[in-house]
């Protein structure tokens, strides 16, 4: 089967800002694919184009082999979508909202009761009384209640507590085991690392890295630490020796030789930490990038704000 989602050179402008600047993305059948990046990277803009909510200004995209703008109705029949900020009908109960959202997709509510119990959602309460987390639960229950070929989840755990995040992870694994494809956008590194088979890192509307977790981890160094002030015989990075403990980083190509050297040394309390997605993330989003202000629009990097003029002080009239 061909890729479920493909974008090539995708461009989307929001006013004078390029929210997407030639974004290339491939999501394979049956995988849980993470779209990783900070707020303002272009994740939500990408998903809105894929859902057919917005029309791309350049490049092209296909979802399930269809054009999401031209064939949006047909595309949405085969997918379930959870936005990061859910808005519901205030006069409806949670259960009525779940039923309505599910039937809008043309399905039934076959798994409704199990999901309501799992997410601890009271379906009798009116939506206007729900917290952000409970509104999110309504969208998640509606999305997972009926089978879909593709689940598009935009910051789906926003507002959920850790217990509900675990329930969400179980549901993602359940639909993936059934053969569905999941495209998950997040800025939470631990969430992506726990759930995703493949990851695409987005920065300023462009893809800066993409691959399986194993492939991306090769781009970052492994951290080695042990008790015993011994200088490694091989070239390592970030060497620190303090209080009788030695710590350094080593690339994947040198790691086997470092391990062989360590096996012959009198060291204690050895710890070897594989690179995390956080290290990969910081590699592409350093302090200067993270500190850059963002525009109030959905995703694009913020244009520089116009400096405000200082107020003129009224001349004082002294009597």
Radius of gyration computed on alpha carbons:
24 Å
Q: In percent, how helical is the residue content?
A: 25-40%
Portion of residues in beta strands equals 25-35%
Order of helices and strands: EEEHEHEHHHEHEHEEHEEEHEHH
CATH class of the domain at 5-78 and 148-216: Alpha Beta
Q: Which parts are unreliable, with pLDDT below 50 for 5 consecutive residues or more?
A: 288-319
The average pLDDT score comes to 86
Strand order within the widest sheet? 5-6-7-3-8-9
Describe this structure in words.
By secondary structure, this protein is of the alpha/beta class. Among the domains are: 143 residues, P-loop containing nucleotide triphosphate hydrolases (Rossmann fold, 3-Layer(aba) Sandwich); 54 residues, no CATH class. The chain contains eleven helices and 13 strands. It has a six-stranded mixed beta sheet, with helices on both faces. It has a four-stranded antiparallel beta sheet with strand order 11-12-10-13, with no helix packed on it. It has a three-stranded antiparallel beta sheet with strand order 2-1-4, covered by helices on one side. It starts with a strand and ends in a 29-residue tail after the last helix. It is a peripheral membrane protein. InterPro entries: AAA+_ATPase, ABC_transporter-like_ATP-bd, ABC_transporter-like_CS, ABC_transporter_ATP-binding, P-loop_NTPase. This is ABC transporter ATP-binding protein.
């Amino acid at each position: 089967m061909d890729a479920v989602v493909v974008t090539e050179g995708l461009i989307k402008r929001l006013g004078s800002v390029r929210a997407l600047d030639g974004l290339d993305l491939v999501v394979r059948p049956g995988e849980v694919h993470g779209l990783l990046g900070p707020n303002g990277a272009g994740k939500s803009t990408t998903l809105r184009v894929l859902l057919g909510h917005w029309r791309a200004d350049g490049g092209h995209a296909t979802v399930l082999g269809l054009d999401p703008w031209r064939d949006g109705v047909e595309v949405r029949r085969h997918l379930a979508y959870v936005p990061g900020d859910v808005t519901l009908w205030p006069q409806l109960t949670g259960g009525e909202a779940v039923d309505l959202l599910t039937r809008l997709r043309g399905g039934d509510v076959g798994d409704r009761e199990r999901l309501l119990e799992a997410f601890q959602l009271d379906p009798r309460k009116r939506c206007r009384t729900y917290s952000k987390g409970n509104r999110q639960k309504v969208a998640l229950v509606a999305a997972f209640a009926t089978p879909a070929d593709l689940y598009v989840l935009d910051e789906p755990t926003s507002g959920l507590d850790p217990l509900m995040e675990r329930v969400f992870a179980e549901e993602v694994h359940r639909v993936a085991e059934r053969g569905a494809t999941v495209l998950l956008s997040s800025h939470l590194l631990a969430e992506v690392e726990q759930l995703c088979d493949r990851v695409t890192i987005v920065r300023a509307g462009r893809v800066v890295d993409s691959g399986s977790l194993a492939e991306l981890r090769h781009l970052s160094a492994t951290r080695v630490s042990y008790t015993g002030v011994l200088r490694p015989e091989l070239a390592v990075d970030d060497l620190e020796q303090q209080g009788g403990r030695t710590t350094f980083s080593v690339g994947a190509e040198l790691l086997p030789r470092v391990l062989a050297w360590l096996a012959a040394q009198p060291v204690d309390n050895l710890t070897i930490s594989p690179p995390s997605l956080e290290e990969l993330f910081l590699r592409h989003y350093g302090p200067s990038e993270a500190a850059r202000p963002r525009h109030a629009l959905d995703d694009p990097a913020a244009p520089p704000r116009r400096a405000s003029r200082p107020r003129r002080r009224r001349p004082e009239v002294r009597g």
